[in-house]
């Protein structure tokens, strides 16, 4: 993966309408799923009961929370873009979130993304990213979302 470097936000604006590099592949382990379940208090059996999942789920394994793949967008985007003058970056919100396919434990995820829009706002910029989290070897994606972030110089 090639991290994109920009001198400032004005230079970043040249990326509107362009694809970003794909993120690195991340393997989703049972430990990660358990940690997410503990952090969110969402301990539904399909996520944490390995034995029951092996016997009752079509994937024969536990599956990650949909919101886990969504929560990883910040990290994946942060690994792709560096703006030298940015002092602070914040999550701003989400649009059009969908989870088309479950993520079985030990799956590998990768984000494909582009910058849809950048607009000046509140002394910084609001960036709309189009993000698709793909699962290695599975046609349907794990997550499709518009992710909104703010950056301040």
Task: Describe what this molecule looks like in 3D.
- The chain is an alpha+beta fold and 153 residues long.
- The chain has one domain: Hotdog Thioesterase (Thiol Ester Dehydrase, Chain A).
- It is built from six helices and nine strands.
- The protein has helices at 9-12, 30-40, 45-48, 50-56, 66-71, 73-78; strands at residues 4-6, 26-27, 63-64, 81-83, 88-98, 103-104, 108-121, 124-135, 143-152.
- The strands form three sheets. Strands 2-7-8-9-5 form a five-stranded antiparallel sheet. A two-stranded parallel sheet has the order 1-4.
- The chain is elongated and about 55 Å long.
- The chain starts with a strand and ends with a strand.
Rg, alpha carbons: 17 Å
Number of domains: 1
Total helical elements: 6
Find the CATH topology.
Thiol Ester Dehydrase, Chain A
What is the count of β-strands? 9
Principal-axes shape call:
elongated
Give the class-level CATH name.
Answer: Alpha Beta
* Largest sheet descriptor: 5 strands, antiparallel
Query: In angstroms, what separates the terminal alpha carbons?
Result: 25 Å
Provide key terms for this protein.
Thiol Ester Dehydrase, Chain A, alpha+beta, elongated, two-stranded parallel sheet, single chain, about 40% strand, five-stranded antiparallel β-sheet, about 150 residues
Provide a compact summary of the structure.
The protein has helices spanning 9-12, 30-40, 45-48, 50-56, 66-71, 73-78; strands spanning 4-6, 26-27, 63-64, 81-83, 88-98, 103-104, 108-121, 124-135, 143-152. The protein is α+β, with helices and mostly antiparallel strands and 153 residues long.
């Amino acid at each position: 993966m090639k991290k994109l470097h920009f001198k400032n936000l004005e230079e970043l604006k040249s990326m509107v309408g362009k694809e970003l590099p794909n993120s690195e592949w991340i393997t989703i382990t049972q430990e990660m799923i358990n940690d997410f379940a503990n952090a969110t208090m969402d301990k539904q059996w399909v996520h944490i009961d390995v034995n029951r999942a092996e016997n009752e789920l079509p994937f024969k394994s536990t599956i990650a929370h949909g919101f886990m793949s969504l929560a990883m967008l910040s990290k994946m985007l942060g690994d792709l873009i560096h703006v030298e003058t940015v002092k602070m970056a914040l999550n701003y919100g989400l649009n059009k979130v969908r989870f088309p396919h479950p993520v079985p434990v030990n799956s590998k995820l990768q984000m494909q993304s582009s910058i849809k829009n950048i607009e000046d706002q509140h002394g910084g910029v609001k960036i709309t990213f189009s993000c698709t989290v793909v699962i290695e070897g599975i046609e349907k994606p794990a997550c499709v979302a518009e992710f909104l972030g703010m950056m301040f110089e």
